[in-house]
Design a protein that fits this description.
alpha/beta; Rossmann fold; 4 domains; five-stranded mixed beta barrel; disordered N terminus; cytoplasm; EC 3.1.11.6; nuclease
Length: 482
């Protein structure tokens, strides 16, 4: 069975290839209004081809197309270029190397296949083509559809969650194998275990791996291995069979089998089919091996490698112990040389004490002499820095006399200035004018009257004198010539 690996998200196809092709989505792709542009303005070829490609890709979904392969060419880059045809038409196809590595079989001319592809336009040549995502042989569509539906449902339940995968034991003493006793995969697994780990005990739980009842027998064998874990002593379980077609591996795409693997108390390795074959059991198992032989290699470490590793560790341990012994011996010699008689130690400490006392006395004497010299220097500097108070007092008296004279002169000058300004203000004072017999006339709005023509008979006015005011009424108005 040729399916993508477990880590790849598999899209679920909708309907059979015939139903998808009969929907004629190309007509609906161009039914929507095109991008607005002037019909009279010529379009560059690249612009036109790009618009057509965008219309095709946006209008046609990813779909399954069935046909026969012809004109197949594999480029040096690993990409496949071919035509997919039927009795009435053909279309150019390209399948890039990353996609081609996952299909599990080599395409050949004349094969009838079903391609999951995206319709597009190769702009460099203006050719309509299909970008093929995956290929499958014609006739497996229903099985593949059921596989995808079951995988999606179990995955949504968390049955394939990597966080729930159990670690494999590093050194298992007993391994259980669920497979057919007549299967070639069993011989491969036993041969590999005998070569890599002859000390490991093997318990076989027989079950059919192909046929109508194979899924039930595999489920029952896994449940039996889990129930007899304590009595049989198995620490790990391998579920395996050799490669085959999609129909041959269908027993390992059973929901009950997947749930039994997930519920098994033993870690489970799935080694079903060849490297490109993937089943539901692979997703449910704790580890997936590409082949039964690889499952055996994954289950048990090689005894020769373990012995070589133990020998390396033993040699490394001996070298470490030898180096440690040498370091400790050298350290002991150093401590031996430092070891002294207590009397010698006390004499050395006594001499050291006397030496420190002499140094301390000399330090005190030197420090005292230095302080005395410093005090004498500071006293001399203090004498030199003492102020002469008599000269300073005479200088202060002179400054006081000068300050008094300057104050008297300044006051006299300011008094003269004040008198001059007062006389000027007196001449400008309106009260002085009023004292000479003049008066100020204002109307009832408080405005000064300068022209008799601005007054009217019977109008009230106010007359201001040097002392006081008087209210009056206009009897008659005369101009200066009257």
């Amino acid at each position: 069975m040729n399916l993508p690996p477990p880590s790849r998200a598999l899209p679920t196809p909708r309907g059979t290839p015939d139903n998808t092709a009969s929907a004629n989505p190309l007509a609906s792709a161009f039914s929507a209004p095109a991008s607005s542009f002037s019909a009279s303005t010529p379009l560059p070829v690249s612009t036109l081809v790009r618009l057509v490609r965008e219309r095709i890709e946006s209008g046609l979904p990813l779909c399954w197309v069935s046909g026969e392969i012809s004109n197949l060419v594999q480029a040096a880059s690993g990409h496949f270029y071919f035509s997919l045809k039927d009795a009435s038409a053909q279309v150019r196809c390209v399948m890039f190397r990353q996609r081609a590595q996952l299909i599990g079989f080599r395409p050949e001319n004349g094969q009838r296949v079903e391609a999951r592809a995206l319709a597009t336009l190769y702009e460099a040549r203006g050719e309509f083509q299909l970008n093929v995502e995956t290929l499958r042989r014609n006739g497996v569509g229903d099985l593949y559809e059921r596989f995808l539906q079951l995988k999606g449902r179990l995955e949504s339940e968390g049955l394939f969650d990597p966080a729930g995968k159990r670690p494999l034991p590093d050194f298992p003493r007993c391994i259980g194998i669920v497979t057919s006793p007549q299967a070639a995969a069993l011989r491969d697994v036993l041969t590999t275990l005998a070569r890599r780990a002859p000390q490991v005990r093997v318990v076989i739980y027989p079950a059919m791996v192909q046929g109508d009842s194979a899924a039930q027998q595999l489920t029952a064998a896994i449940a039996l291995a889990g129930a007899r874990r304590a009595s049989d002593g198995c620490e790990l379980l391998i579920v395996c069979r050799g490669g085959g077609s999609l129909e041959d591996l269908q027993a390992f795409n059973d929901e009950a089998l997947a749930r039994a693997i997930h519920a098994c108390p033993l870690p489970v390795i799935s080694g079903v089919g060849h490297e490109t074959d993937f089943t539901i059991a692979d997703f449910a198992a704790d580890r997936r091996a590409p082949t039964p032989t690889a499952a055996a290699e994954m289950a048990a470490p090689e005894a020769a490698a373990l012995r070589a590793r133990l020998d390396d560790n033993a040699r490394a341990l001996r070298r470490s112990l030898l180096r440690l012994f040498e370091r400790k011996s050298q350290q002991l010699d150093g401590l031996t040389h430092r070891l002294q008689h207590p009397q010698q130690r006390l004499a050395a400490q006594r001499d050291l004490l006397h030496q420190q006392q002499r140094r301390l006395a000399a330090a005190f004497a030197g420090s005292e002499a230095q302080r005395r010299r410093r005090c004498a220097t500071l006293a001399q500097r203090l004498l030199l820095a003492r102020p002469e108070t008599a000269r300073t007092a005479r200088h202060v008296d002179a400054l006081a006399a000068r300050l008094a004279g300057a104050c008297h002169a300044t006051l006299a000058q300011q008094a003269a200035t004040l008198a001059r300004l007062s006389a000027s203000l007196t001449h400008l004072n309106p009260t002085a004018v009023l004292a000479r017999g003049f008066s100020i006339v204002t109307d009832d709005a408080g405005r000064i009257v300068r022209d008799s023509q601005s007054l009217e008979p019977s109008q009230r006015i106010t007359v201001s004198f040097q002392r006081g005011q008087a209210d009056a009424r206009i009897e008659a108005v005369r101009d200066e010539h009257s």
